Amino acid sequence: LAEELEWERQEIQRFREQEQLLVQKELEELQSMKQQILAQQEEERQAHLMMQKETYAQQQQQLEQIQKLQEQLRLQLEEQKFRQMYPDRDL
């Protein structure tokens, strides 16, 4: 009986060790998946950030063009006013 109990105890111990190894393996796989997902999210975040920077740069360029055009229009309007006020004068 003592031998049988010892054998069962050892069987239970082996089963627990196998279960522990399986759980450890699953945890490692999950950790690996988590790292891959985090890396992918970081890549996507970086790509999104680059797109935002490019969009911002384009908007800045457009704004500068608009401001230049506004300045040109302002100068043309001043010139027109001057010509209307002094039609006989050359600029």
UniProtKB/TrEMBL annotation:
Residues 16-83 form a coiled coil. InterPro entries: Presynaptic_Scaffold_Bsn/Pclo. The keyword Coiled coil applies. One of its GO terms (molecular function) is structural constituent of presynaptic active zone. The keyword Coiled coil applies. Keywords: Coiled coil. GO terms for biological process: presynaptic active zone assembly; protein localization to synapse. GO terms for cellular component: axon; cytoskeleton of presynaptic active zone; GABA-ergic synapse; glutamatergic synapse. PANTHER family: PICCOLO/BASSOON, PROTEIN PICCOLO ISOFORM X1. This is Piccolo (Presynaptic cytomatrix protein) a. It comes from Nothobranchius kadleci. The gene is PCLOA.
